[in-house]
Amino acid sequence: MDYNSAAVKTGTQTVEINKVLKNTYSLLAMTLIFSAFTAWYAATNFVQPMGLVVTLIGVYGLMFAVYKTANSIWGLFFVFAFTGFLGYSLGPLLAMVSATAPDILFTALGGTGLIFFALSGYVLVTRKDMSFLSGMLTAGMVVLVIAMIAGFFLHLQALQLAISAGFMLFSSALILYQTSEIIHGGETNYIRATVTLFVSLYNIFVSLLNLLMSFSGND
User: Fold this and answer.
1) C-alpha dihedral over 81, 83, 84, 89, to 10 degrees?
2) Tally of CB atoms within 10 A around 30
3) Quick one: angle between helices 3-44 and 74-100, nearest 10?
């Protein structure tokens, strides 16, 4: 057995993994700042909420473009377009919450940050392999889609709260899984990793905001 070759290979893999991790967190930070700016712009200019069809086309169209161009320079353009669009779409909701209950807005922001740092920090420190979550995430996504379809026809507050709680749990598990994939070499594309983490943070923030508003009576 060539131990020198094995050591070199392991060292090269470690360097590549650290590079992906660094690029992912750097890009994630930049996209969060950019989306915060677009959300602030939409909120301060009293932009009207976009229709469901426009939102779905924008979100899934841009997400498709990100994944199709993830291995090229265009991937960076579309990842900012995608995250900026999500931030812009939040503008009307943030304007309403900041005007009626700013404390809830800051609590949701702080809670989202704490959840992300706690979950990602846990995986980075323990180096645990979270690949076992893959099947659970697939099942969870199916359940959430069914619940969302049901919620579209059944306007029940309890169901909406359950969906929000479900998205928080699903997105938290996705952060654990994606972080683990990066540090164990399962994810080598920092653009795809960034989008996954960004969407997870977005879902946690919106879900936490909905839950806090409901429990405080401001929904």
Assistant:
1) 120
2) 15
3) 40
Question: Which one-letter amino acid corresponds to residue 40?
Answer: W
Encode pLDDT of 25-44 as tens digits: 999 999 999 999 999 999 98
Transcribe 95-140 into DSSP letters.
Answer: HHHHHH-HHHHHHHHHHHHHHHHHHHHHHHHH----TTHHHHHHHH
Q: Which helix (H) or strand (E) holds 92?
A: helix 74-100
Q: SS3 helix, strand, coil % of the chain, rounded to 5? A: 85, 0, 15
Residues 6 or more apart from 89 whose CB is under 8 A from it?
Answer: 42, 49, 50, 55, 58, 59
Q: pLDDT by residue (tens digit) across 52-81?
A: 788 889 999 999 999 999 999 999 999 999
- Report d(CA 108, CA 168) in Å as an integer: 12
Centre a 10 Å sphere on the Cβ of residue 146 and count the other Cβ atoms it contains.
10
- For residue 81, give every residue at least 6 positions away whose Cβ sits within 8 Å of its Cβ, in sequence order, or none: 62, 65
The mean pLDDT value of the chain amounts to 89
Q: Which of 142, 124, 112 is nearest to 179 (CA)?
A: 124
